[in-house]
Specification:
elongated, 5-stranded antiparallel β-sheet, alpha+beta, 45% strand, single chain, 5 strands, q64v53_bacfr protein fold
Length: 86
């Protein structure tokens, strides 16, 4: 697994298990992102679905990489697990 300080161009995280904020008490969701130039494309939702996608146009590729890095760190603190990162 890559460390949070490494440069990431594509990443996927999943969260499966208990979630007290969910009505059923369970969660099964994903968050993934990729960078194309200075555009960050993030997709999230329940596992097994296409999810919801949003594009963020940032000042440059470095800003896009920083945005992914910050979001990954936040998700890992919320018990998401890294599936891949490259």
């Amino acid at each position: 697994m890559k460390q949070a300080h490494e440069i990431v161009r594509s990443v996927k995280l999943i969260k499966i298990g208990d979630d007290s904020s969910n009505k059923s008490g369970q969660t099964n969701k994903f968050w993934q992102a990729k960078i194309i130039g200075n555009i960050l494309i993030a997709t999230w939702g329940p596992n097994g679905t296409p999810g919801r996608t949003q594009q963020y146009v940032l000042d440059n590729i470095y800003a896009a990489r920083n945005k992914i890095r910050e979001t990954v760190q936040s998700k890992l603190k919320k018990n998401y697990k890294m599936v891949y990162s490259f």
